[in-house]
Specification:
By secondary structure, the protein is an all-alpha fold. It is 52% helix and 0% strand.
Length: 98
């Protein structure tokens, strides 16, 4: 599953875009200095997210939308189209809405 696919699945499960969840995290005081565990606990308690999907959000909450280029443009199961994740909802992603 690509990094973007994790975020899209989180949106489906929670009803919130990644950007909305980042804002909610900031309202709780989570930022770049926050360790993963409290964020994961919040996401599990409030949204029922498991570790994999939660860690995708931990990344964007603590590091922003840029990801490693390691899998960008590859043909593997973790392939992403870009090194910048789309945070404004899968329905508006120009990479998939053409």
């Amino acid at each position: 599953m690509s990094f973007q696919a994790y975020l899209d699945a989180v949106e489906t499960k929670t009803g919130h875009t990644p950007r909305e969840l980042i804002k909610l995290a900031e309202e709780r005081g989570f930022d770049a200095s926050t360790k993963a565990t409290p964020i994961l606990e919040w996401l599990k308690e409030d949204y029922g997210l498991g570790r994999g999907h939660g860690m995708a959000l931990v990344h964007v909450i603590t590091k922003g939308p840029r990801i490693s280029t390691k899998h960008v443009g590859t043909s593997g199961s973790h392939s992403d189209e870009s090194d910048t994740l789309w945070l404004d909802g899968k329905a508006t992603n120009p990479a998939t809405t053409g």
